[in-house]
UniProtKB/TrEMBL annotation:
The keyword Transport does not apply. It comes from Streptomyces gilvifuscus. Keywords: Signal. This is Phosphatidylinositol-specific phospholipase C domain-containing protein. Coiled coil: none annotated. CDD domains: PI-PLCc_SaPLC1_like.
Amino acid sequence: MRVVRRWAALLGAAAMLMAVPGNAQAASPKFSETTAIGTHNAYDKAKYTYWAQALDSGASLLELDVYADSLSRRWRVSHSNPLGNDNNCEKAATPSELYSKSRNQDLGSCLDNMAAWQQLHPDHAPVVVKVEMKVGFNNNVGLGPDEFDTLVSRKLGGSVFRPADLLGSSYSTLDAAAKANAWPTRDAMRGKFLFELIPGTVEQQNPFDHYWTDEEYGDHLRDLYAAGNISAAQAFPAVLGAAGGDPRTARYDSSIRPWFVFFDGDAASYVNNGYDTSFYSANHYILIMTDAAGVSPAISSTAPTDAEVAARLALLAADHASLITSDWASKPASVLSSVAARS
């Protein structure tokens, strides 16, 4: 009976989503109170010819895979080539150069494209930029958290919503700020990018690397705050992997646990394992559910119908997701910009 009632509610929610396009809302909710759609590996040229088109897509989350190339001391953007760039970012730093320049550029150019695109769309909805640090940071060659922050700040300046912006003047940890629901409204976050950092697949498989991106950036946030310089931080580290309870407890020491308010894991693992995901919405944490198409009943991971996307958004909003991701790059902006109320 509980399942029947849940599906009835979700069908009703899906119908409402189809009737209300884009980001239309009666009143602007807080960023933590909504569920939106993101695109996996949006830097892939097979998905979007240009990175600016990924930004045009209306998606609320776009993903970049970044390698710290220790030989060239550059941030490479690629799926599997740690020494080169393979992506849709252009050598374009002004609006007039977008959609026309050579691609396969480094992270700095991806950020240049974002800055140029923002000049054309200064009132855009908030966009989470999910950065998978494929091999992690390499502080020894100048590719550490400090250098990442410096690059993002230099390229995007005040258009980044930073950890300091969530803290304001009232809170001493991100956890305290999130629990108080200090997130701005979605309208107040127009024109903003939020950077989420996760450990990379190569980093996780490296038997000699036990200090992953999440922990390293968590330490970075703690230390910056202690030094009175938290405003320099440009990103939010995420706890990676679906788990029950509070996954920070087993992963991190007590000094950095309060600096994690982003959580990121497989949607089916959250839903099918019966994890109490209300933990995330009750504390106003940002929960990203990946591979949204794989949740039962499975739908196409590349070309579902608009109605299927709406129903999946409603389903995972009821399971307390903040953002759901898949490979739905072919869907129009009217679909990818959809926003639902988070349960």
